[in-house]
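Practice problem: predict the structure.
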Amino acid sequence: MSRRRPSQRRRPLSPPKESYLSSVLGEFLDPLDAIFTVFFTILPTLLFTLSYSNFYYGLLDSSSLSGYGQDLFFAILGAVAAWGIIDGVLYVLSEVFARNERYRLLRYVQTGGEETAVAAIADELDFILEPITTEDQRDALYHDIRRHLRQAEPQAIGLQREDVVGAVAVVVLSVVAVLPSLLPLLLLPDNTALAIRVSSVISILVVFAAGFSWGIHTDNNPWNIGLILSFICLSMVLVAVFLGG
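Answer:
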């Protein structure tokens, strides 16, 4: 489940649209971090439910599964919460490491020669500016950036409040995202087999909803993004189950 975003990402050229990811979670968490948190929360949940059902269907009939829903509920919730905490810690580390990398770049620009500093700035920005500028325009811009950065004061690079808030948001989002998938296990205590099927369907719908919201946020077709993300999630789970995961 654990994953961390790269410190440098290619941003869309047009401003993102307002969506659930940005309007509700944007105050605490980058939308890309939010969608990956949801995805990597639902992924092991589906792996739990599908593996559980496949294993017991091979040994017992459906009636024998009754009464296991509550145990499965707490097992999945505990695993998700634990991995959410681990993921939150990794989130903090990635933010601190990213600031250290930016600080290293700033010090490199401030202490290095002009051409060396310009080359370092170009390495960071070329992939964004190459499609929309000429080489002369970029060269002039990079020299201006260098002159500005030579006067800049380094910011604090240690642990910050926003890091902790983001980590807590990761944990909370992990638990909240999985709750709809787990509720059938409590609401159908006498039919665990049916509860598992309903839980699996809800899990796919949660992934679809996350993809749909991301499609709105990035001004892409939300239905396509939702369906593609759902298909990828289900395919990864089926491969894991097939391989004995």
